Amino acid sequence: MSPRWEPDLDIRRGNHVIYHLHVHLVFVTKYRRGVFDDEMLTRCEAIMRDVCQSFEAELREFNGEGDRVHLLVHYPPKVALSKLVNSLKGVSSRYLRAEYTGRINPIGTGSVLWSPSYFAGSCGGAPLSIVKEYIENQKRPV
User: What is the pTM (predicted TM-score) of this model?
Assistant: First the structure.
């Protein structure tokens, strides 16, 4: 008897597309001020999970410390990453500043929580050297 085939849950399907896209995002606070405690990070994670769901994406991992958060997001190809990031930072800033008034905006940051920059790194799947080799080997002999 042959082993039963199990579908890979990381590979998602849509109309005319099969995809497996993950991104590692890092957001830092304005001036790298340490403003987060465990309670605020827990709330930030809940907010960002909701934002991801609204984009039909999934927040797979979340962690952070006083001045930054790390996210691993599985997202569909129809999502413009810059729009997802803008929404994650904007919505979380609005909610956290409203809910933690006085604790979230140290002197000098005004009404801004996040630095305007961010890190985005693609991840998952095979190393680039393996993908490059695979593509090179697809050439037909002349």
Answer: 0.83
Domain of 40, in residue numbers? 13-136
Residue 18, CA distances (Å) to 3, 14, 142 in order: 24, 6, 31
Tell me the C-alpha distance between 124 and 139, whole Å.
25
**Domain of 129: which CATH number?**
3.30.70.1290
Domain total for the chain? 1
68-74 vs 114-123, strand pairing mode = unpaired
As a whole number, mean pLDDT of residues 120-142 equals 79
- Rounded Cα–Cα distance for residues 24 and 82 (Å): 13
Q: How far apart are CA 102 and CA 9, in angstroms?
A: 42
Instruction: Please check whether residue 1 lies inside any domain of the structure.
Output: no
